[in-house]
Amino acid sequence: MYLPFPAALTAALPIPDGVSDALEDIDPLIPSLAGQTQNPVIKALIWAVSLLGMVAVGIVIIKVILWIVKKLLRRTKVDNTAIPFLNSMVKALCYVFLFVIVMGTTGLVDTASLAAILGVLGLAVSLAVQDSLANLAGGALLLLNKPFTRGDFVDVGDISGTIVEISLTYTILRTVDNKRISIPNGQVTNARIINYSSEPYRRMEVLLTIERDSDMDLAEEVLLRALQSHPMTLKSPPCSAKVCDHSDLGAVVSCRAWATKEDYWTIYYDLPKLLKKALDENGISMPVRGRAVPPPPPREG
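RE: above sequence
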């Protein structure tokens, strides 16, 4: 059954009342003009003009809808990275609706037959590009669940790097040696993800082995003072230095300190040298397999 152009649009899209009334006033003009002439060329021309007008008005309405959706998404807690993706999904759905409405309204194709054809085509395409669809679905899950955002340093499986971009189908990382790695989103969602940037503080641990006959209480005290002396270690949570194990070489001391994620790598590389120097200055030696390395003699003067 033929559905007038404004009625078809207003039935599927949220058109304001004023615009809808104006379209309803214009719609009767098309059949009246077509009825005043028997010339098939003029009839075809009128039909083509009405078709183009329908498409043009539909595109304008879609742009308004996309603008409204974008504004609403920015007012919500949706991540900014997800907004273009969601906007693209809404845009695709709107154009599919417009296509169905145009085909049904002009009578070119029966709406029920068109829906069946689109269903069959959708099934065929989904089977042909199932890997791409899996990546697309993975991208949607990543943008909605947000296990990481742009700029985070993460482990994705056995790959480490900084998130550069999260697209619809791929996640791009930059490794510490400045390589760009693109990982399909389907693999990302199935991999173990470790995010090192999601929390404001990080803890580091350095394990040191001291001679078995060393004064363990003194070693713990010396190492704790060394940890606390670094200007970037946090006072809370506090640092700690405790004997945690005994190995073939001697007693193992666990030295732990907390820092902000921005200072983590600086302290990570400072601590081994700082702690070794503190042990040497207090006459506490660290063993080497086969022999013990004594601390250096104190400097004269």
